[in-house]
UniProtKB/TrEMBL annotation:
Biological processes, Gene Ontology terms: adenylate cyclase-modulating G protein-coupled receptor signaling pathway
Domain of life of the source: Eukaryota
Record-given protein name: Guanine nucleotide binding protein, alpha subunit
Binding site for Mg(2+): T307
Biased composition (Low complexity): 1-13
Gene3D superfamilies cross-referenced by the UniProt entry: GI Alpha 1, domain 2-like, P-loop containing nucleotide triphosphate hydrolases
Amino acid sequence: MNATDIDPLALAIAPPPNETPAERAERECAEAEALRISNEIDEQLKREKEGEKKKRRPVKLLLLGQSESGKTATLKNFQLTYAKKEWLAERNNWRAVVFLNLVKNVNNILDVLSREMAAASLPSPEYVGSSDESSEDIQSSSKPRLKFKEKHRLLKLRLGPLRRIQTDLERRFGESTLEPEPTTVTTAAPFDDESANRRVLKEFSINSSNGWKSAFEKIRARRAHADGDAHALRKIRDSDDEIAEVIAGCRDDMKAIWEDLTVREMMSRSKTRLEDSAGFFLNDVERIAVSNYEPTDDDVIRARLRTLGVQEYKFIFEHGRTVGQEWRLYDVGGIRSSRAAWYPYFDDVNAIIFLAPISCFDEKLAEDRRVNRLEDSFLLWKSVCSCKSLSRTQLILFLNKCDLLQAKLQRGVRIRDSVPSFGDRRNDIATATKYFQQHFREILKQYSPAQRSFFVHLTSVIDTRSTAATLAAVEESILRDHLRRADLM
Ligand SMILES: Nc1nc2c(ncn2[C@@H]2O[C@H](COP(=O)(O)OP(=O)(O)OP(=O)(O)O)[C@@H](O)[C@H]2O)c(=O)[nH]1
Ligand SMILES: [Mg+2]
């Protein structure tokens, strides 16, 4: 064998020639120790890599709460704060939704007006009020009868085309434009019957892998279908332009009907507070009813489209502590009959933001007129807290609609009339929020399967600035929990 046949590495690590048995034992012992240390380092690196992978897993966040509690509005705030590019790309899609909301506001007034004008045209003694209970209040004997004039008839006539606009837009967006009808067959316990879960899931779940809304998806599909077909595309554009033109043409009449004192009195007697209702835009008619209207960020947050089933949204956060991290947010439909569809999404979820609209202490559920809305929120919170599969999930409570609560209390509405246990406490926002918060805290303590922290925020999620600050705190606390869990695994 010549010198070039010898591998220099083998030569370097070969035992020294003439090694004594004692030297050999010492060398082998040192080598074993080096191997142990090396294996330990490998093991450590493997663990760190796996930990990193777990940390990079999507953060899963579920938004829960009754219908109209503000779940979708919160989701929009997430997008506005952390995925601005997507937000800007989507913003104009909301134009038609704002138009629909506005037109519905007006048609709501026209419905009451038609009914009451017809009733008022009857001679006084025969007039017994129209069919539903609210109309008795409208022309109640204790108040002077409302006097409708020619002006009201003309307004009704001139605003007539808005009916067709509502129908057109509702057809375009489908079921999400329809608010639930009252029914009494739903139960309060939302997710304890597996077979019901499967049944309802089949019926309701729309698990879009991405994209804003299934309603928007429909429109996109329509446009994509028309793509390349100049005639079909022109038809869609013409119809959008026509809707904007009709609405712009009704601008002065919409303003006039909303500002009319008789109409205001009529709405007040019918106990319809349109200004507190979802998707109220009548105070912005001048800005919105123009042919080149473009929605602002606030308009998009306030626009109302009901959520059907469960919708998944994926965001890669553009900034914040978790920049580059994928978040999966699940927005659900909140009406009672939709709640069984939530259950399959409880697996492996990092956190839940539970929205409880506390301004609703004197209101009833739209889908079940027997149930007080605050009571429903308490029951639902109890179900979420006691759910075993959520025992390791962080629960974050938003006591939402604080702006509406404040306005309601300032109008003199007394909490104790609807919530007797509130008793003689001061009827102000500080006392009310403290009282409600305490109630939610006690439920959490009493019904959680294992001890957990109580995270609570007082919110008005239509206020995008204060909500951005709340979301930063939420992001931080979910992230801390996410990293801690990845380290423990
Ligand atoms: N004034 C006020 N309005 C709010 C607040 N939060 C939500 N809203 C409005 O209330 C309406 C209902 O809110 P959504 O976010 O659509 O309610 P949701 O919980 O998603 O309802 P579902 O989809 O039916 O389950 C929308 O028009 C919101 O803009 C709030 O804090 N204050
Ligand atoms: Mg929603």
